[in-house]
Design a protein that fits this description.
With about 425 residues, the chain is mainly α. The chain is built from 19 helices and four strands. It has four domains: about 100 residues, no CATH class; about 90 residues, no CATH class; about 70 residues, Arc Repressor Mutant, subunit A (Orthogonal Bundle); about 110 residues, no CATH class.
Length: about 425
């Protein structure tokens, strides 16, 4: 099985956004070819897809999400029942086809007032272990917090592990007083409803960090959160300022301060990449009824425009400064000469263009696109080639043509030739 997977990863087309191809090459073929079903059944392979509801929430990803869900439905047709597929998701995000008893076996984890004793016990153990790691660095007594406070936290969690995890992250935040933060959570009120409790917790976190913030800070807050939410892949903390168009020292300081205030809901990995801890936080911010004070609405930063501007500013001939072009890319040392934010822009500008529906920005976008297509196109292809992402080029050009609303036959002979050329990589 490992050999088959490695063989697929070595093929040039494995990076293509072809979900059906990936399903057959990564799931069906390795599990069924070259081995008997009886041998595989003895090993009982199990594949877990966690947080299905967070897969492809954006409009531009709706088609891929539909195809992905269809491949999951194909599981029961292509593979024996001994191959187990476990999916976790919020119930309201599960497609109707999954309610077919011949396709899926449902296990409901109740929340709110109907939460089971076993779920409450699991959350109790999580709190106990988490607080045991928080108390030593802060010089707190091993008995902190009181059992009554822990039991109230379990009630507030209402069966939601995301509530429990967010609470622990908030209380354990560096350079803060965990006793004060715990009391703030406890004073939030015992509402009993899982959705209301997670909203209350998010509201407390935001008010604690940004309750007295100025208009400029709130605007920057919306830009930071909107950019992280709209990004196709996690963005590095140091690159965020480029996508916000805020590169001076004071704005950079404020961005870092905002990220610190959001550290319980936006994680920064050891590699510096920023991750949303849960999609529910963005859903909360985008609902004006649930979050009127910090509502971000459509304030997801126009990344298409910023990606185009970054490419127009920084793409250039021989971007790595090599002495010769007569060597293979693999034989040359790039030494990370292409900044991560520029690589991201080259990879995803067209996808963000597809997400943009604001006609007010259309004229500005057209100007940046004209500059890019006339003056930076070949430099863009060089970066894609160096990053081994050439299959992106054709799809990006087709996406741009679709956004422009013109026929492929009217985009120009040179662009068509480049599309054909990109198809061969």
């Amino acid at each position: 099985m490992k050999i088959r997977l490695l063989e697929f990863f070595q093929k040039a087309y494995f990076r293509d956004a072809d979900i059906l191809l990936h399903f057959h090459c990564l799931i069906v073929d390795p599990l069924t070819q070259g081995q008997s079903f009886d041998h595989l059944a003895a090993e009982l392979p199990v594949i877990v897809i966690d947080a299905l509801d967070e897969c492809g929430p954006g409009e531009s990803q709706s088609a891929q999400r539909r195809i992905f869900l269809e491949t999951i439905a194909l599981w029961s047709h292509h593979l024996p029942s001994s191959f187990k597929l476990v999916i976790t998701s919020r119930d309201e995000r599960v497609p109707t086809s999954f309610y077919n008893p011949q396709l899926c076996h449902h296990i409901v984890l109740e929340t709110g007032n109907q939460v089971s004793c076993s779920t409450a016990d699991d959350i109790r153990i999580y709190f106990q272990n988490s607080f045991a790691s928080i108390t030593p660095p802060h010089g707190l007594e091993p008995t902190w917090p009181r059992i009554s406070d822990q039991e109230r936290l379990i009630e507030l969690a209402a069966g939601l592990f995301i509530w429990a995890k967010t609470t622990v992250e908030f209380i354990a935040q560096k350079n803060g007083n965990p006793v004060t933060r715990l009391q703030l959570v406890l004073d939030g009120g015992l509402l009993g409803d899982a959705q209301e409790n997670i909203d209350s917790l998010y509201r407390q976190i935001l008010l604690f960090a940004f309750g007295g913030a100025s208009g400029h800070t709130l605007e920057l807050f919306r830009g930071v959160v909107g950019t992280i939410a709209a990004a196709k892949t996690p963005i590095h903390q140091n690159d965020l300022k480029y996508f916000l168009g805020k590169e001076d020292a004071e704005d950079d300081r404020q961005i870092r301060s905002i990220l610190y205030g959001l550290s319980s809901v936006i994680a920064r990995g050891d590699d510096g990449l920023l991750h949303l801890r849960h999609l529910s936080f963005i859903e909360f911010l985008q609902d004006v009824k649930r979050c009127p004070q910090f509502f971000i609405g459509q304030h997801r930063q126009n990344l298409a425009l910023l990606c185009l501007r970054l490419m127009n500013q920084e793409l250039r001939f021989n971007i790595c400064g090599w002495e010769t072009s007569h060597c293979r890319n693999d034989d040359m040392k790039q030494s990370n000469l292409i900044p991560a934010y520029l690589s991201y822009s080259c990879r995803f500008w067209a996808e963000h263009l597809q997400d943009n529906h604001d006609q007010r920005d259309r004229r500005i976008l057209l100007k940046e696109m004209r500059d890019f297509l006339h003056n930076r196109l070949l430099f863009w292809l060089e970066v894609l080639s160096l990053n081994k992402e050439m299959p992106v080029a054709q799809l990006a050009l087709l996406t741009a043509i679709s956004w422009l609303g013109v026929s492929v036959y009217h985009v120009g002979y040179q662009t068509l030739c480049l599309m054909i050329l990109c198809q061969d990589f």
